[in-house]
């Protein structure tokens, strides 16, 4: 019997050595092998996870990080946000079918992973106390005071997650294909020696090195039309990235599922500048009420839709 919590921890890298051995044994019993999370779930959910984490890193994590020492009597001072999405109650059954999750209810698991100093541990009482920061009230007076001040529940709730996921329209993920979702918030921990590595791994699927060239990018896009956008927009992305300091993107190897945030090294301001520049190239200042521009495919579709709309209007 696979313990789903062990699988969650294995995916984050917070599972103990003994727990890892036990999980691998259980997977062997059902004749399968452990596949790393982002390889297992496919590009659709990988991109949604990265976008949701990116949003929480901006809107919630700074306040939580600042309050963490006070909330834990200075035992813990570092934390990162880890987001994973699973098919509720079905992960073990469809472990080998990474692209066959449509129709499932999704579990959105948001974990806040603490750096645990040597000779300390994250006890269940502290976990429960910290989780209550996101609840309607806390049984811990000091946490209740922080809860009211931080208002973290307003920054992470079902409505917020629904809004972000609902604006993620990707080739491999359409919100309407799933039967809703449930949100789970937990606090987890890892040894301080592993913290930086796991923090980096939580950012998302890293862009393959084959997307980059050994030579500095040289080039500029031709006039982009709805007919040539599939080929020209990747060149536009590489040209803008080059101007922003990301020099060696090989536009010929870009794929529709490639994440723009990952392509820009998970750098928030660079990604924001990239997306803004793409929109400005088509004389559009913002996307109001539309899908987020998360992937190369989103950028291509944005260009085509914008150009076709103008052709109809002229």
List its salient traits.
globular; 314 residues; 3-stranded mixed beta sheet; mainly alpha
Radius of gyration: 21 Å
Class from helix and strand fractions: mainly alpha
What is the number of independent domains? 2
- Seen as an oligomer or otherwise, the chain set is single chain
- Helicity level, as a percent range? 40-55%
Distance between the termini: 63 Å
Mean pLDDT: 89
Secondary-structure element order, N to C: HHHHEEHHHEHHHHH
- Principal-axes geometry comes out as globular
Low-confidence stretches: none
Strand ordering within the main sheet: 1-2-3
Tell me the number of helical segments per DSSP (H or I, 4 or more residues long). Answer: 12
How many E-type strands? 3
Range of strand content: 5-15%
């Amino acid at each position: 019997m696979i313990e789903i919590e062990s699988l969650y921890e294995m995916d984050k890298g917070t599972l103990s050595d003994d727990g890892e051995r036990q999980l691998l044994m259980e997977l062997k019993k059902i004749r399968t092998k452990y596949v790393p999370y982002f390889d297992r779930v496919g590009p659709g959910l990988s991109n949604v996870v990265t976008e949701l984490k990116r949003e929480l890193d901006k809107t919630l994590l700074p306040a939580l990080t600042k309050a963490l020492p006070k909330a834990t009597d200075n035992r813990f001072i570092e934390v990162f946000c880890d987001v994973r999405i699973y098919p509720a109650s079905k992960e073990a059954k469809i472990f080998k079918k990474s692209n066959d999750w449509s129709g499932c209810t999704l579990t959105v698991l948001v974990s806040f992973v603490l750096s645990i100093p040597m000779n300390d541990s994250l006890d269940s009482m502290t976990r429960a106390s910290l989780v209550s920061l996101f609840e309607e009230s806390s049984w811990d007076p000091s946490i209740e005071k922080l809860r009211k001040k931080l208002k973290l529940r307003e920054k992470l709730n079902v409505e917020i997650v629904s809004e972000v996921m609902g604006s993620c329209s990707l080739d491999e993920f359409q919100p309407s294909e799933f039967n809703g979702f449930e949100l789970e918030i937990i606090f987890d921990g890892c040894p301080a020696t592993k913290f930086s590595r796991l923090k980096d791994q939580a950012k998302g699927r890293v862009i393959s090195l084959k997307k980059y060239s050994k030579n500095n990018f040289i080039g500029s896009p031709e006039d982009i039309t709805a007919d040539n956008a599939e080929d020209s927009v990747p060149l536009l992305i590489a040209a803008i990235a080059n101007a922003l300091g990301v020099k060696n993107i090989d536009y010929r190897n870009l794929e529709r599922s490639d994440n723009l945030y990952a392509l820009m090294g998970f750098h928030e301001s660079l990604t924001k500048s990239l997306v803004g520049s793409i929109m400005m190239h088509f004389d559009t200042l913002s996307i109001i009420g539309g899908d987020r521009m998360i992937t190369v495919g989103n950028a291509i579709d944005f260009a085509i839709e914008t150009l076709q709309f103008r052709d109809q209007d002229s």
